[in-house]
Amino acid sequence: MTITNGHLEAASAKVAAAKAAAAKPLPERMADTGGGTQLITAVTNGTSNKARNGTLTWWRRDGNKWVKVGSAPAKFGTNGLSRKRVEGDGTTPAGLFTLPLAFGINADPGSKLPWNSVDKNSWWNENPASKRYNTWHQNCPKTECWTSTTKKKNASEHLADYTPEYELAVFIGFNAKKKKVLPPAIKSGSGIFLHVSNGGYTAGCISVKKSAMKALVRWIDPAASPHIAIGNTTTITTF
After folding, report:
1. What's the CA gap between 141 and 133, in Å, rounded?
2. Beta-carbon neighbour count of residue 56 at 10 Å?
3. Looking at residue 110, what is its pLDDT?
4. Mean pLDDT for the chain?
5. HEC-encoded secondary structure of the chain
6. Mean predicted confidence (pLDDT) in 22-49
């Protein structure tokens, strides 16, 4: 088969178009960014959901363009990512989520999000039988919140016990309906956060170094309708 100049030009045009598309900032290649002007992308390495390491990048929208604000290495669930997460499966949920709340054992570094200070009476309610499932629960009674070492069936997180993880953290709105009627879909799990890294993989959260977490808590602004997109290098553009 003879390759004509026309074929060469068409092939070159396709290559150039592909390179131009790949050169666009990630948010400009995504199907959905949440409709706001702040976005965090949490992308694991490679095209498989099995990867547990990746990069967290935060972006701001400037007119029709997305501008990179910062980035940091990130660790994900011990079993990678999943679009069909089940409680206790060790995966980080993939998808596009809201960022409703920040909290911490440390003092508020200047959060624009609603901020909750962790003390000895602070819990994240992970009791499937509770109407307050998957929410912050201050002074949670022992009839509802227990640690896993005390009563696994009603296990919740006593937030003050988790250092350095919850020195600074942001709730990722996975499995958290905005309606007043709770609970959400119990089997999907609860307590998915963006938090300080302890050096290892997580049970389903995303962790970054403390300096990055501090910058993020200060940066995220509810007025900008912030969202986080979690996926691998292929799926991140499809949500």
Report:
1. 13
2. 25
3. 98
4. 90
5. CCCCHHHHHHHHHHHHHHHHHHHCCHHHHCCCCCCCCEEEEEEECCCCCCCCEEEEEEEEEECCEEEEEEEEEEECECCCEECCCCCCCCCEECEEEECCEEEECCCCCCCCCCEEECCCCEEEECCCCCCCCCEEEECCCCCCCECCCCCHHHECEEHHHCCCHHHCEEECCCCCCCCCCCCCCHHHCCCCEEEECCCCCECCCEEECHHHHHHHHHHCCHHHCCEEEEEECCHHHCC
6. 95
Quote the CA–CA distance of 161 and 150 in Å, as a whole number.
14
CB 68 within 8 A of CB 34: no
Cβ contact 53:73 at 8 Å: yes
Task: For Cα atoms 177, 182, 185, give the angle at the middle one, nearest 5 degrees.
Answer: 65
State residue 183's pLDDT score: 57
The predicted-structure confidence for 154-208, as pLDDT tens digits, reads as follows 689 999 999 999 999 999 999 987 654 445 677 899 999 999 999 999 999 999 9
pTM of the model: 0.89
